[in-house]
Fold each of these.
Amino acid sequence: MIAVAGGIVVIGTGLALSGCVPAPAPAPATVTVAVTETFTPTPTPTPTPTPVAEPPAPEPEPEAPAPVPNDPAPVIEPGPAVDLGARDGANGTPVLDGAGMPINYVVVSGDSFFDIAQRFDLPQQQLLRMNPQIHDFGEAVYIGDEINLDWTKTG
């Protein structure tokens, strides 16, 4: 038996629902496409670079002579001190002579003998020879110590 009551369809002894069907889809909209031609530039060829003459190869430096075992160390000629400017470990102000050459330096806090030698462009051994009052190869310098920088004098 089939009976319809309020949107419910009864078939035999079973129950079936008929209200779950989706609504029909609307008609598709009409789309108009207009094709326009775009200008494509023609590529220009890349110019070939002109060859540049290579600079001449530098001349090789002469090789240093091979060291000879037990050869005496090279002699470093003493020379005047040149102030290269304050640096870490040598921040004090030197005393200058009339020609502007440094002749004396007073050790300030944070100074080391090695850095003082570096600042004044002197080998540490030369600075030690110029300052016999410095002991322990310059390991111990104290605030207020006067360092001679005049290479013509000792002490």
Amino acid sequence: MGDAHGHTAPPAPASAPASAWGRWAIPVVWALAAVGSVLVVAAAYSGRRVWFGDDAPGAVYVALGMVLAASVIASMALQLASREPHGFVGRVSASIAGAVVVVAVAALALLPVVL
């Protein structure tokens, strides 16, 4: 149907099929956070006391911060690689929130070592 002058609107472009990778990237980020946290906790319980040149009792939390930072970067990279704009913020938020929970549990597990 056209306007008063007989012009018609161009057809809407076909959207690309939604990628399933965006959904699967969320547990991948959680797994990355879990693996990194387990490695840090295992190293701390095995007696490692120097983290990135710092031997303070709470220096192990710097390593956990690096795990969380890597998880955030991986979340952004994986979601951008999915090339699926619909729901981007929700998927990134879910990825990061899950990684924060995983790292927080690891931080609690480190309390006996730090104190």
Amino acid sequence: MSQVGQLAAQVVNNSDQKDLLRLSWGVLSVDLEDTGLMLMANLFKMSPGSLGKFARLGDVSAGKANSKLRGHAITLMYALQNFIDSLDDVDRLKCVVEKFAVNHINRQISADEFGEIVGPIRAVLKARMGSYFDEDTVAAWAALVAVVQAAL
């Protein structure tokens, strides 16, 4: 089994992580667009070097007023939705992750660069989940990000 398959299987077979992912997704997905924009803003703030990979989006500091950034944020959130919807099937999770990875490979985003999203995810989880936030939830998201990283 490939590394992507192995890591996908670890996520799929960990019921605690899946519960945390689904619970937190229930909070994050209440407002997909705003959560996606928050995630992107946190990425640019926490990893300023990532801005170069998003030059095609134009002025990202314009936030919601930038339609290209909004489109990317919304598309990102639907990709995450697809991951969450695939948590019970290793092959399906592997397939959707590999398709998602192609988009990032085409933009020459490395596994390490992609991994920089974990910090911004943590910040979004903390902001959105309030007193329900915990590091186990961050670890569950990091495990899902690791599946994507393996495909890059």
